[in-house]
């Protein structure tokens, strides 16, 4: 179907941070399939885990216990605020489950009138009808109405506006701790803590969409760890399976108590093959020193971009983000820059606010960072000469 404006490029093989096109060209992948391939391509441990599981059992449904789910959930419980985890197949689905939980929590606690959810300007939460409504883009909603009721939008980062928008009908708050598709917009200092405080005052749940920010992308397992607060619910997907489609909703006991047996479900969600992939990803991401590499490579990229910026003014306006969730706000059109970078065999991803995202695999090395910086410098020189 004509739903994508695809580049005329097809890859037949990947190895670490490199992708090989059918025509033999080799690309350095600083897009990671939109923040998905967190260990690069064909990572041996991931390949082995999936291959071994494929020989045993792929799918059994959630009518039975799935040991891989129990193992993965236990790891999240150990390493995050969460007490319990639900598994699904994508980011939008994880967010849908979270939206249901935000409302149902109030309902089971005797507040069925509290069913409205505060969402942010510039937000992206997925392409289902519900998550499109939670997201900010009018363009993505156009022609798909009527949209569901019960969402109130506030300016991302503005605590006063958030407080003023809370009414006796508010159930909870959904935000991305760093907005991804919106152009790598970090929450301002103190915003997440203030949001938590307001939620506690009014008995609201706080949900973070960590579909893009999670699984080590920012140099912590989840981005909320950079703040001094805990959310009640977070959604995860993208990097979770390292390229295998899988999503998860993590919640504390209080929030999760709202979803009793039969209240939510997924046929494929958390099947043994997906769990083998996600557990293999966590084997690597939770290794001592893994996050140190994310932060060290982040610094190398930022330092390199600062030098390029100084040498070629009029190309990069600003660099934003944390860890390897980086955005270059461009002076020239971001789409044109992505194409020129691709001509230099470097893959990147555009985002809102004229941003080019740099989302390399989290295990990249200095050599590859230098290679990417050289490509960016060549394009900067071409644009500014
Ligand atoms: C990608 C993304 C989604 C949607 O995930 P899908 O797997 O495409 O449904 C939702 N929220 C955020 C923040 C994302 O980056």
TrEMBL record:
<protein>
    <recommendedName>
        <fullName>Acetylornithine aminotransferase</fullName>
        <ecNumber>2.6.1.11</ecNumber>
    </recommendedName>
</protein>
<comment type="similarity">
    <text>Belongs to the class-III pyridoxal-phosphate-dependent aminotransferase family. ArgD subfamily.</text>
</comment>
<feature type="modified residue" description="N6-(pyridoxal phosphate)lysine">
    <location>
        <position position="238"/>
    </location>
</feature>
<dbReference type="InterPro" id="IPR049704">
    <property type="entry name" value="Aminotrans_3_PPA_site"/>
</dbReference>
<dbReference type="GO" id="GO:0030170">
    <property type="term" value="F:pyridoxal phosphate binding"/>
</dbReference>
<dbReference type="GO" id="GO:0003992">
    <property type="term" value="F:N2-acetyl-L-ornithine:2-oxoglutarate 5-aminotransferase activity"/>
</dbReference>
<dbReference type="GO" id="GO:0005737">
    <property type="term" value="C:cytoplasm"/>
</dbReference>
<feature type="binding site">
    <location>
        <begin position="91"/>
        <end position="92"/>
    </location>
    <ligand>
        <name>pyridoxal 5'-phosphate</name>
    </ligand>
</feature>
<dbReference type="InterPro" id="IPR004636">
    <property type="entry name" value="AcOrn/SuccOrn_fam"/>
</dbReference>
<dbReference type="InterPro" id="IPR015422">
    <property type="entry name" value="PyrdxlP-dep_Trfase_small"/>
</dbReference>
<dbReference type="GO" id="GO:0042802">
    <property type="term" value="F:identical protein binding"/>
</dbReference>
<feature type="binding site">
    <location>
        <position position="267"/>
    </location>
    <ligand>
        <name>pyridoxal 5'-phosphate</name>
    </ligand>
</feature>
<dbReference type="InterPro" id="IPR005814">
    <property type="entry name" value="Aminotrans_3"/>
</dbReference>
<feature type="binding site">
    <location>
        <position position="266"/>
    </location>
    <ligand>
        <name>N(2)-acetyl-L-ornithine</name>
    </ligand>
</feature>
<dbReference type="GO" id="GO:0006526">
    <property type="term" value="P:L-arginine biosynthetic process"/>
</dbReference>
<keyword id="KW-0808">Transferase</keyword>
<comment type="pathway">
    <text>Amino-acid biosynthesis; L-arginine biosynthesis; N(2)-acetyl-L-ornithine from L-glutamate: step 4/4.</text>
</comment>
<dbReference type="InterPro" id="IPR015421">
    <property type="entry name" value="PyrdxlP-dep_Trfase_major"/>
</dbReference>
<feature type="binding site">
    <location>
        <begin position="209"/>
        <end position="212"/>
    </location>
    <ligand>
        <name>pyridoxal 5'-phosphate</name>
    </ligand>
</feature>
<keyword id="KW-0663">Pyridoxal phosphate</keyword>
<keyword id="KW-0055">Arginine biosynthesis</keyword>
<feature type="binding site">
    <location>
        <position position="124"/>
    </location>
    <ligand>
        <name>pyridoxal 5'-phosphate</name>
    </ligand>
</feature>
<comment type="subunit">
    <text>Homodimer.</text>
</comment>
<dbReference type="InterPro" id="IPR050103">
    <property type="entry name" value="Class-III_PLP-dep_AT"/>
</dbReference>
<dbReference type="Pfam" id="PF00202">
    <property type="entry name" value="Aminotran_3"/>
</dbReference>
<keyword id="KW-0028">Amino-acid biosynthesis</keyword>
<feature type="binding site">
    <location>
        <position position="127"/>
    </location>
    <ligand>
        <name>N(2)-acetyl-L-ornithine</name>
    </ligand>
</feature>
<dbReference type="InterPro" id="IPR015424">
    <property type="entry name" value="PyrdxlP-dep_Trfase"/>
</dbReference>
<keyword id="KW-0032">Aminotransferase</keyword>
<keyword id="KW-0963">Cytoplasm</keyword>
